[in-house]
Structures are given as C-alpha cells and as structure tokens.
Design a protein that fits this description.
The structure is a single chain. Strand 3 and strand 4 form a beta hairpin. This protein starts with a strand and ends in an 18-residue tail after the last strand. It is flat. Helices cover 12% and strands 25% of the residues. The chain is built from one helix and six strands, in the order βββββαβ. It is α+β, with helices and mostly antiparallel strands. It has a single domain, classed as Double Stranded RNA Binding Domain (2-Layer Sandwich), CATH 3.30.160. The mean pLDDT is 90.
Length: 93
C-alpha cells in the first residue's frame, strides 16, 4: 500500500506575498532509498512516484482523492505564522 503526505505549501521567505499558500499538496513518500549513480554520481532511484505532486484546493478534496484511490496518508500541519510587529522608530533605539 502506498503512503502519501498532505501539506500546505509554506510562504516563500524571500517574498512578502502569500500566493498559493492555501493550496494542499499530495506527495508520495519514498518507497526505496536513493543511491548514487556510479557514472555521474547523481542520486536516483527506481521509484517514479517521488516525481508526482498533486495539488488540491482544500484538505477535504485531497483526503477524498486519497481514500478513493486507496492511498494511506498523513496530514502535516502548516507551521503557525508568527508576526514580528515592529515600528520604524525601533531601528534608531
């Protein structure tokens, strides 16, 4: 049986916008370890499901898809946003 994780994409730390942070992502867990290729040294495996990433508008839609397809899953909660409230005058103290 295949397993997957459901999570929300975090906000990009390099930008102030929060685009696509409400989308839920279904990503398969790796079934075999990656091993280095003897010729190139690149890491790879025969598991092609690691390349697959599906997006859903809500958590319920992602859970419905996983149960309908017989995929066991676990939900990774989104990290809580912490706001650092600071005044411009604090730069000169």
């Amino acid at each position: 049986m295949t397993t997957a994780r459901l999570y929300q994409r975090p906000k990009n730390a390099m930008q102030s916008g929060r685009a696509r942070t409400t989308i839920w992502v279904l990503e398969y867990e790796p079934t075999e370890a990656k091993q280095p290729d003897p010729l190139t040294g690149w890491a790879g495996s025969g598991d092609t499901r690691q390349q697959l990433r599906m997006t859903f508008p809500t958590l319920e839609a992602a859970q419905d898809y996983a149960t309908r397809e017989g995929i066991s899953f676990h939900v990774v909660p989104a990290p809580e946003r912490t706001l650092k409230l600071q005044a411009y005058a604090d730069n000169f103290r």
